[in-house]
Design brief:
Two copies of one chain form a homodimer. Chain A has three domains: 49 residues; 131 residues, Rossmann fold (3-Layer(aba) Sandwich), CATH 3.40.50.2300; 136 residues, Rossmann fold (3-Layer(aba) Sandwich), CATH 3.40.50.2300. Helix content of chain A is 44%, strand content 16%. In chain A, 45% of the residues are buried. In chain A, helix 5 crosses helix 12 and helix 10 crosses helix 11. Chain A is elongated. A six-stranded parallel beta sheet of chain A has the order 2-1-3-4-5-11, with helices on both faces. In chain A, strands 7-6-8-9-10-12 form a six-stranded mixed beta sheet, sandwiched between helices. By secondary structure, the first copy, chain A, is α/β, with parallel strands linked by helices. Chain B binds a DNA duplex (30 and 30 nucleotides) through helix 2 and helix 4.
Chain lengths: 344, 344
Amino acid sequence: MKHIKLRNMEEFATASGISRPTLSKYFNDPDSVRPSTRARIEAALKTYDYRPNMFAVNQNRKLTKNVGIVVPYLADPFFAEIARNIEERCIEAGFHPSLFSAHGKADLENDILNNLRAMKPAGVLLAPLGRRSSDRKTIEDFCRDVPTILFDSNIEGVGEAFIGSDNASFVNQTVDYLHRTGDAPCFFEMAEPANPNAIRRRDAYLAKMGALGLEPHVLSVAGSGWAFEEIGRQGALRLLAKDALPTRTVLCSNDRLAIGFLAACFEKGVRVGHGPGFDLRVASHDDHPYARFTCPPLTTAAHDYDAVSRLAVETLLKLIQSDGSLGGRFERLVPARLILRASA
Amino acid sequence: MKHIKLRNMEEFATASGISRPTLSKYFNDPDSVRPSTRARIEAALKTYDYRPNMFAVNQNRKLTKNVGIVVPYLADPFFAEIARNIEERCIEAGFHPSLFSAHGKADLENDILNNLRAMKPAGVLLAPLGRRSSDRKTIEDFCRDVPTILFDSNIEGVGEAFIGSDNASFVNQTVDYLHRTGDAPCFFEMAEPANPNAIRRRDAYLAKMGALGLEPHVLSVAGSGWAFEEIGRQGALRLLAKDALPTRTVLCSNDRLAIGFLAACFEKGVRVGHGPGFDLRVASHDDHPYARFTCPPLTTAAHDYDAVSRLAVETLLKLIQSDGSLGGRFERLVPARLILRASA
DNA sequence: ACAGAAGTTTTACGCGCGGAAACTATTGAC
DNA sequence: GTCAATAGTTTCCGCGCGTAAAACTTCTGT
């Protein structure tokens, strides 16, 4: 029966027979009015079509219900998936998430943060581009003005909290498994990783190999940017052509590199798998949405998407409730779960 | 030197020595003021840190600079890629795009449209979920209130325009190529496609086979939702187990199904490729970002991402300039480009 | 130099809502 | 039934900016 469209709260007040300040209270918090009047209001809402003007609301409210979600590269299914997860949790909590992608570009990330400032968000969840310290200041300034929680990729000391994956857990599990069931792996990575997690994974690999008393082999392939699959493929093709793999077991820094690596193996007729009749074992990290559809399916260490997104949103809500400060920087690293498939 | 932060335009007016209405004009259109005063304003902007409050601006402006971009499923790299493309073009044109994903859920799409209404966007680019007519009304109502352009997936008569891909062009090219270089294909698809494009592709396949005087074979596999790869894989496994493929050439409705199909072939030792020594040729449509990394790389008909996004944004800008109506529904279908890779 | 055009300032109002203050009505326990 | 606490009403102001009107100033072309 939503026929008459009302233009403002005043009209809705006269139409519903309830004073405007009471309506204002109701829209800010439906529980702040008596149940009987709440029922009257909600009955009126079904008869008349009225919604508060969000611009007028946000102009006057000290704290909006907006939250910003910023990811470095949305065309990467990993970020698409985690952003989806976070977005849904924010909606559940009664907030209005806005999703932004830096598309791999630092200056776009800066623009996003500046525009986000104008939205006066209650809080921001930011997965920064991993990059040199030259741009660190922009993010630092932003975090000083807006309650921000970093996720996925950490910047030491910046933001009120960091929620991420425990790269050591990822690498320890994969190296352990590969070593236990055959040979310890060499480590395949990009020479100039776009992301600090890659550096932590290499460090974890070196540490783990040291702990096992084994000699590490790091293969750093050239390439920059976000076209990881192609970089992995080209790197693998070069290594295979030169027969330069130091071991018959390869651990890739991440699944997107591994997807390219496997494509190169297929191209060159290298049989990837575990057991007799196979030339090479390949494992990786992330459990990328397509990792189960590679040929062969990829053995990998899986992110706990659910836990990371849940913790990130929970921490953000806590941060918002405690008025923008948690009293000390909170950090939480979520461990990985090993996924065994045919590639290793 | 951006030291003093000014709280509103009034303060900036006194600080810069320029009247507030003139500043207002400047921020709405920098070219609407005399070059000399424009220079004075921009000089002042470098001394003082001031940006108009976007909520106050949008409350009073009849037409905001917001544009909404709505896609059905952002975790699908196809939509991630086209959304990225569209977003960047909108920014270039001086608008503020907001990206939303329905995450495959019809009720979420409805919520998004309702929230979008509150943002009073100048225009909206909507790639609707393909679904039954029961929800058509929500979209129709929305399009009546907000200047909207549909893309990717059409709904007859809804919105001011539709920009999409020419499914017939996709299918004609792949069928032609397969037929010319070997055998005509059977058609592999989902029985209950999430998207009307799938139906058009099947129809195009039937028509093309008819035109070639050949008998068509449509293989519809069970499954619904957006996990296309798994649906394709399961369907392929069943068909291979029963040896039920009517031809040695398979044309998949889209690349995500094909990715699953290829995974199943690999699993079962079916050698996919073109020429002697291969069991099966597989081709598809879309040129999904991962199509070049499948094993073997996928022969497919590529979307012209660039043309679709460019046309969509151009049409939207035209629509906004002409005050919300183009005087008749505009439709434009972009042809495909055949990409030959090893799978067929 | 001067009329006319174009740009600028002054003044004033409005947008739709948040929120404070003072007052009135309702509630529930004694 | 009284009274205090709670909830609602009335009235008013402020938020930051768009925008209109009128007066004023500066810029054009001749």
